[in-house]
Design brief:
The protein is mainly alpha-helical and 312 residues long. The protein folds into 2 domains: 221 residues, Rhomboid-like (Rhomboid-like fold, Up-down Bundle), CATH 1.20.1540.10; 68 residues, no CATH class. Helices cover 68% and strands 6% of the residues. The chain is built from 14 helices and 6 strands. The strands form 3 sheets. A two-stranded antiparallel sheet has the order 1-2. Strands 3-4 form a two-stranded antiparallel ribbon. A hairpin with an 8-residue loop joins strand 5 and strand 6. Helix 7 packs across helix 9 and helix 9 runs parallel beside helix 11. The chain is globular. The chain starts with a helix and ends with a helix. The mean pLDDT is 84.
């Protein structure tokens, strides 16, 4: 087990997200299998993990706004759902990491998935046609699953950051380089055409919501605003709440024990995260404009951070 944990820790963030998605999918499939073997009934895990378009259903399962983009279609229903989503997550995750940090990728993935889910709920309850589909008697349990909304947020963010970077598509006859901006626009066009076709409407609406978030992220990034920064700090704060913190530090040599205050620990961690976020922003600026584009204050901050790492 320790070997597998070590391998997981050695993966970059797209690899870790893929492991999490595949693991969750495997657990849902095992639940279905055991439920059928012991009860003869199918386990409807979508009722508890999928995002329901019907607001009455959603109010009973609000956590699904987060869980829906970590679960995927059952093996017998759509075997390619998980496979293609994970391939896209890997490809565009690597593109994203060329110009961003892992924290920014995680923030974009999570915020993109959440925004796509909110966009899905709004569209299915505001637009007359989608509203009718949602509240039709036969569709009270309409639910969407899959990470594609979060992944399309990465696609759009990459296209906004590096619109002219080439992605190489293999058409078997030959490999064709396509600029990222044209690839993203083609994906947008295909989704809009499929929306009119009436199939997988929920998934398509999530794709569009994810792309809208990715475009917003890229637009603000061009103006020096990291849309994920505050979200990542909030996630860190939540994670700190569940981390066990020792109340007393044992010392040797007869010294008095030192009691730690939880609030002081939290403040220290908060300052560390803010300093790291500042360094990440400086490094991002270097990748755009080079070292000479930094201000004297930014160069000093980078120098201080380098010294602190050497001393540690």
């Amino acid at each position: 087990m320790n070997e597998y944990i070590a391998k997981y820790k050695s993966l970059n963030l797209p690899g870790k997200l893929i492991v999490i998605n595949v693991t969750v999918w495997a657990v849902t499939q095992l639940l279905r299998l055991f439920a059928f073997l012991f009860t003869g009934y199918d386990c409807q895990w979508e009722d508890w993990l999928g995002l329901h378009a019907n607001l009455n259903e959603f109010l009973y399962t609000p956590w699904t706004l987060f869980t829906y983009f970590f679960v995927h279609a059952n093996l017998g229903e759509n075997v390619f759902h998980l496979i293609f989503n994970m391939l896209w997550l890997w490809w565009f995750g690597q593109f994203f990491l060329r110009y961003h940090t892992g924290r920014q990728l995680l923030g974009t993935y999570l915020m993109g998935g959440l925004f796509a889910g909110i966009f899905y709920l709004l569209c299915f309850n505001l637009f007359p046609y989608l509203h009718a589909v949602t509240y039709a008697a036969a569709n009270l349990n309409v639910a969407v699953v899959g990470a594609s909304g979060a992944i399309f947020a990465l696609v759009a963010a990459v296209a906004m950051r590096q619109p002219n970077e080439a992605i190489y598509l293999n058409f078997f006859i030959r490999v064709v380089p396509v600029k990222m901006k044209w690839f993203a626009l083609a994906a947008l066009g295909i989704n809009l055409m499929n929306l009119a076709g009436g199939e997988n409407i929920g998934g398509i609406v999530c794709h569009l919501g994810g792309m809208l978030f990715g475009v917003t992220y890229g637009y603000l990034e061009r103006r020096g605003i990291d849309l994920t920064r505050q979200f990542n700090l909030f996630c860190d704060w939540v994670a700190d709440l569940f981390k066990p913190k020792p109340r007393m530090q044992a010392t040797r040599g007869g010294k008095r024990p030192v009691y730690h205050d939880r609030q002081q620990d939290h403040d220290y961690n908060q300052r560390q995260r803010e300093q790291q976020a500042k360094i990440d922003a400086i490094l991002d600026k270097i990748s755009k404009n080079g070292y000479d584009g930094l201000t004297a204050e930014e160069k000093a901050a980078l120098f201080d951070a380098s010294n602190r790492r050497k001393n540690n």
